[in-house]
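**Protein of interest**
===
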Amino acid sequence: MRDMHLKTMKVIEFPKNKMVKDKMKKYKLETAIMMLEVLVDYDFTIIVNPKAAENIFNLPKNKLIENFIITTDINKAEKLEIKKPCYYQLTGNELT
């Protein structure tokens, strides 16, 4: 009886965890969309962890890159003097 009860608890707990995970994912997406709506009118530079960049952009692993930089103004981004950068310049068409 006890084992059966524990199995039932796991089944009940899993959907709850999935709902929380889905809510967090939705919250992050809504936050990202709000940030993009604000950033359309301004120059910006975002520095992304290389592991995250590999996952997001399906890039091959590259040990020479320590920072993946997404920017609207490459000249300003280069002045930041970031170690081992990889730059991606946005033209503006991506955000509209």
Observations:
- Residues 41-96 form one domain.
